[in-house]
């Protein structure tokens, strides 16, 4: 989520106090993409 809140997913669903909700696998993919963009490198899938 944009608020960068760290939270454990419960029952395969991530719920953030800011109101963001998504499947935990999608959130994980978003975090990996963010890390590669911010880290200045990207790797092919």
From TrEMBL:
<protein>
    <submittedName>
        <fullName>Transposase</fullName>
    </submittedName>
</protein>
<dbReference type="GO" id="GO:0003677">
    <property type="term" value="F:DNA binding"/>
</dbReference>
<dbReference type="Pfam" id="PF07282">
    <property type="entry name" value="Cas12f1-like_TNB"/>
</dbReference>
<keyword id="KW-0238">DNA-binding</keyword>
<dbReference type="InterPro" id="IPR010095">
    <property type="entry name" value="Cas12f1-like_TNB"/>
</dbReference>
<feature type="domain" description="Cas12f1-like TNB">
    <location>
        <begin position="3"/>
        <end position="32"/>
    </location>
</feature>
């Amino acid at each position: 989520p944009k608020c960068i809140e760290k939270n454990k997913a419960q029952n395969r669903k991530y719920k953030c106090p800011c109101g963001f909700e998504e499947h935990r696998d999608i959130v994980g993919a978003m975090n990996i993409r963010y890390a590669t963009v911010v880290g200045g490198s990207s790797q092919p899938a």
